């Protein structure tokens, strides 16, 4: 598989270690399944990942899933930003839901500019530039 690539956390408790093995200290524990992670390096069955905040660590591949998820504009957290989930991949389409920055959703498809995603039971389209979990221009098929 190519590097870098996005995956998500399989479990609600995942240790991120300072090195590729259980003998290395736990640096961080993630407590939310489905969080997107970017794999940036591989060693045996360990994956060096980067989260949306830029933190890096090693996670065993068995705790990672190929299921694609994304975070709505994590760089806007704490700001008074609102992101529109739309009925169609178009800025003028009607709004399905207003998303707060930092909310995690599941990617259904991306066409390189827009992604159809589900956030808390609401499915719609969001501009690909407004999420962390898909590369700019990346197409993702259902």
List the helices and strands and how they pair.
Layout: E1 5-9, E2 14-17, E3 26-30, E4 36-43, E5 46-50, E6 56-60, E7 64-65, E8 69-72, E9 83-86, E10 95-99, E11 104-111, E12 114-119, E13 122-127, E14 131-132, E15 139-140
Antiparallel strand pairs: 1-4, 1-7, 2-3, 4-5, 5-6, 8-11, 8-14, 9-10, 11-12, 11-15, 12-13
Sum this structure up briefly:
With 142 residues, this protein is mostly beta strands. It has no helices and 15 strands.
Mean pLDDT: 97
State the distance separating the first and last CA atoms: 18 Å
Major sheet characteristics: 6 strands, antiparallel
Total DSSP helices = 0
Helix content: under 10%
Number of strands: 15
Instruction: Give me the secondary-structure category.
Output: mainly beta
Q: Which architecture of the largest domain would the CATH scheme give at its second level?
A: Roll
Classify the beta-strand content into a percent band. Answer: over 45%
> Helix-strand pattern, N to C?
EEEEEEEEEEEEEEE
CATH class of the largest domain, please? Mainly Beta
Give the total of domains.
2
CATH topology type of the largest domain:
SH3 type barrels
Shape: elongated
User: CATH superfamily membership of the largest domain, which one?
Assistant: SH3 Domains
Radius of gyration: 16 Å
Task: Provide the low-confidence segments as ranges.
Answer: none
